[in-house]
UniProtKB/TrEMBL annotation:
Pfam families: Pop8. This is Ribonucleases P/MRP subunit Pop8-like domain-containing protein. It comes from Colletotrichum abscissum. Residues 36-111 form the Ribonucleases P/MRP subunit Pop8-like domain. GO terms for molecular function: ribonuclease MRP activity; ribonuclease P activity. One of its GO terms (biological process) is tRNA processing.
């Protein structure tokens, strides 16, 4: 990450606006390699009758993710830190270290899920990104063209 402060003695970067007034750039920040990546997961069920009643909580999310990581990567997968940002209905948003995003997504995708009351429940990776803003505002895009 590179940060430059123009008021710290350097000549400020200035530009002329259309009105003839000078503007000064006060702070420049470039993030080249973010520390964390973000993922949006959804709990889905084989049975359409239980699909509407699916609810996740923090404990289930952590349990399902740890089971998937341990099954796919063993002890190494269990050591991947997961931060649960939000759980809402059958969806959740997680933060993982950037270098662990690919193994995390592969483990969740390969996980067979759990059987509950004769129906299999699995986590589906909806989106992954290095930036949270790229996945937060896209809710409902998958239904846009399917109506």
């Amino acid at each position: 990450m590179t940060t430059e402060n123009s008021s710290a003695g350097d000549a400020p970067a200035s530009t002329w606006r259309a009105t003839g007034q000078k503007s000064h750039e006060l702070l420049t920040c470039t993030i080249k390699a973010p520390i964390f990546s973000y993922t949006h997961l959804e709990l889905i069920s084989e049975s359409p009758t239980t699909q509407e009643a699916l609810e996740l909580d923090n404990l289930q999310v952590r349990s399902y993710c740890n089971a998937a990581l341990a099954q796919f990567l063993g002890a190494t997968g269990s050591a991947i830190p997961i931060d649960i940002l939000k759980v809402e209905g059958a969806q959740c948003w997680l933060r993982v270290p950037r270098q662990d995003l690919s193994p995390f997504a592969a483990a969740i995708t390969a996980w067979a899920g759990v059987s509950d009351q004769g129906s299999r429940r699995v986590l589906r990776v909806k989106q992954c990104s290095d930036y949270l803003g790229a996945i937060v505002g896209t809710d409902g895009q998958d239904k846009l063209w399917s109506s």
